[in-house]
Design brief:
The protein is an alpha/beta fold and about 400 residues long. Helix content is about 35%, strand content about 20%. The protein contains 13 helices and eleven strands.
């Protein structure tokens, strides 16, 4: 069943905090929920579907529905890491189409900055996960898993550190206009490749920030969206995929976007060249490069050339991306950046991005999320959104 035009995003809100020493994770969830509902012109009493992932405290949806004082008839706690929230948008559309709910609330929140988490450079231990006994002895970290993919791309396609650096340069050009961005300094290619090496070939400025905060979305029936005093953002294309290790037979250069992009574009009835703005998960610069290739914005192996020379900078490049500064400069709440990718895409379609980075007459946008690790198992999800 196609989900095209079965639901709309009516509310979107990003928490302004980047360090939440004085707030609990549950409180952050509540604040982003209130913000997104207010943006839509709705209240908690209107919500009859709730969506959250592993960042929700306690018993997830059970705890949060009670904490927020809601009465809902449908919940979804799909967990695919940072891609969860794009999956939730698609699942909310499916639930609305099936008559399971009319107003779906999706929330994300976390406090890794306040809690001092060594995200990215400490070995990840998922406890009883089946992969742990086999992989933990080799001390895999997030950054070295992505560094393997970057090094492989350099080996096979001649990609350079300078080309990767252009992704951070573009993000920094956008972040300078975002008063909430953690890092607002505009950088050059020389700055990026001259920053300390974290895991060869990735430098410090190839890596995303660590931040607290969160965000929320409200997905509703089209007739409800059109009754509200907000621009209507239609969901016209969706795709989700889980790329596994396949017993070690893994191509480090092929991400889940190779499947999700095809599905989303086919459902939407559009092609990559039609997209006016793209929100691409940017945990690392290599994440963006590989995702752009697999979504079809350029041929495999050509990502380095595609992102170079300001091609991703709003106002000058062919494909403006992450105009809020993205995870590289703005924020990466709870180490899960998929939510903010959808929020900025909604801003662009509504014409509510900062004037310096707003895409003129933006009517068609793409958002993509990645969860897990490109170097091992990961989830991918793609949304194509259209302003009605």
């Amino acid at each position: 069943m196609s989900l095209k035009n079965t639901a709309c995003i009516a509310g979107a809100w990003e928490h302004p905090t980047r360090r939440a020493d004085d707030k609990s994770v549950a409180q952050l969830h509540a604040e982003v929920a209130r913000g997104a509902l207010a943006d839509a012109g709705l209240t908690l009493k209107d919500v009859d579907g709730y969506f959250c992932a592993g960042d929700a405290p306690g018993l997830g949806a059970l705890s949060m529905v009670d904490y927020l004082g809601m009465s809902v008839r449908h919940v979804d706690t799909t967990e695919t890491g940072g891609s969860s929230y794009l999956v939730h948008v698609a699942h909310a559309a499916a639930a609305i189409a099936a008559g399971r709910c009319n107003v779906a609330l999706i929330t994300l929140a976390g406090r890794p900055k306040a809690e001092g988490m060594a995200t990215g450079t400490a070995p990840r231990n998922y406890g009883p996960a089946p992969d742990v006994p086999f992989e933990l002895p080799y001390a895999p970290t997030t950054v070295n898993m992505y560094a393997m993919a970057a090094m492989r791309h350099m080996h096979e396609h001649g990609t350079t550190g300078e080309q990767l650096a252009w992704i951070r340069v573009a993000a920094s050009h956008h972040a300078q206009h975002n008063p909430h961005a953690m890092v607002r300094d505009v950088v050059t290619v020389k700055d990026v490749v001259g920053s300390p090496m974290i895991a060869d070939p990735l430098h410090r400025l190839d890596c995303c920030v660590i931040s607290d905060g969160g965000g929320a979305l409200v997905v509703v029936r089209p007739e409800i969206a059109r009754s509200l005093k907000r621009p209507v953002v239609d969901i016209i294309g969706t795709g989700e995929y889980q790329r596994a290790q396949s017993g070690g037979k893994v191509d480090l250069l092929t991400t889940g976007a190779a499947w999700t992009g095809k599905a989303a574009f086919a459902e939407a009835g559009v092609k990559p060249s039609d997209i006016q703005y793209a929100s691409i998960y940017d945990s690392f610069t290599i994440t963006v490069l590989l995702t752009l290739e697999d979504l079809g914005f350029c041929a495999k192996g050509q990502g380095g050339r595609f992102v170079s020379d300001g091609n991703l900078i709003a106002g000058t490049g062919k494909l403006p991306f992450n105009t809020d500064g993205g995870g590289l400069c703005n924020n990466h709440p709870g180490n899960r950046g998929g939510m903010t990718k959808v929020i900025e895409a909604v801003r662009q379609l509504r014409g509510e991005a900062h004037p310096k980075v707003q895409v003129p007459n933006c009517r068609l946008a793409l958002a993509h999320g990645t969860g897990g690790s490109l170097g091992t198992r990961h989830g991918s999800a793609t949304l194509i959104l259209e302003r009605a």
